[in-house]
Amino acid sequence: MKRIFTLLLLVLTQVSMADCQVLLNKVNTCVDYKWTSGPYLNSRGQRNFSELEVKFFMKDDASESPIKIDGIKVYPWMIMAGMQHGTRPVQTTALTNGSYLVSEIFLRKMMGHWEIRFGEDSDDFDPQNDDHILGKFIIK
Ligand SMILES: [Cu+2]
Predict the structure, then answer these.
(1) 115: CA distance to ligand 1 center in Å?
(2) Which helix (H) or strand (E) holds 12?
(3) What is the distance in A from the centroid of ligand 1 to the CA of 138?
(4) Please, what are the domains in the chain?
């Protein structure tokens, strides 16, 4: 009986979390994202901007209604051997469907991997400080 209950709980947990692509645990918020352009990893001389549509919703909201995210910063971040760095500032625009369009994302092809980091938007925001990062995903 206990085993069945555990199994059921596991299944239920997976169902309720199914559409949470990135969990921002500290603010109880889920992120769904899709690339509307790219992602382009630019070689030398190329200049293709990528665009990401991002929806934020409360973790426990089964209807996944989009919420406003004042105070959350979307930040492309490159991890290389021995160094990390960002890129030029992105543009974040609110869409009528409640999601956000993150545009002007400029990614260069390098010996490393790009991440999209969701950070707390504060004056002293530091993309290398794990305490300032709410969640992230690796760009593949
Ligand atoms: Cu680099």
Answers:
(1) 12
(2) helix 2-16
(3) 15
(4) 19-138 (2.60.40)
Q: In angstroms, what is the span from residue 9 Cα to ligand 1's centroid?
A: 43
- Summarised one tens digit per residue, pLDDT across range 6-42 is 555 555 555 555 568 999 999 999 999 999 999 999 9
Q: Cα of 107 to ligand 1 centre, how many Å?
A: 10
Structure pTM? 0.84
Distance CA(124)–CA(78), nearest Å, equals 20
What is d(CA 14, CA 73) in angstroms, rounded to the nearest whole number? 28
- Residue tagged 């990135």 (tokens): 22
DSSP 44-107: TT--PPEEEEEEEEETT-TT------TTEEEEEEEEETTEEE--SPPEEEE-TTS-EEEEEE-E
